[in-house]
Prior knowledge:
The protein is an alpha/beta fold. It has a single domain, classed as Rossmann fold (3-Layer(aba) Sandwich), CATH 3.40.50.10320. It is built from 6 helices and 7 strands; from the N terminus they run E-H-E-H-E-H-E-H-E-E-H-H-E. Helix 2 packs antiparallel against helix 5, helix 3 packs across helix 4 and helix 5 runs antiparallel to helix 6. The radius of gyration is 16 Å and the shape is globular. The relative contact order is 0.19.
Amino acid sequence: MTSGWKRALVLAPHTDDGEFGCGGTMARLVEEGAEVRYVAFSIATRSLPDGFAPDTLAGEVREATAELRIPEAQLTVHDFDVRTFPARRQDILELLIALWEEWPPDVVFQPSLHDVHQDHQVIAAEGLRAFKRTTILGYEIPWNNYDFAYQAYVALERRHLERKAAALARYASQQHRRYSDPEYMWSLARTHGINVNREYAEVFEVYRVVA
Length: 211
């Protein structure tokens, strides 16, 4: 499946969402020679713990995607205010349509339509509107998904998960969150892998497949 994807687009409502949802898959795609573009829509300034500079997450996402071997030129970071995406739906849609026209991807990774976070919901819905003509997969954010019926598995090796872990470790400002525990990441990937007789895996909801 992944060998046919030469251009992969990852939509992250907030910096680190993409790494949590498909960091291992990004590492595998880069290793296989795919061009991976990462677009984050918010640096979540108002959600930072005390003591961190307002642009902290902008720097952390650069370091994290570098761990995944994604060139900085393929990283785009917008600064939509956190938890206000519903009021900016049209602006976000127009950005996505412009991206499609400039750089049509073979596959888009985005949040699940069953994600309860309002910002994630907007990116999921507008992603489906903007990328009607290509494969779209919804990634897993377990603590936000009230439902998640995955149909696609991307098998991963330990080295891919090591890169994912290294990327997530770059988010010093987010280490207080319980889901940032590396053991949680490894356990989830191991569980999905065992289910399909692989070492590790990440799972996705399938919204559209264009072959």
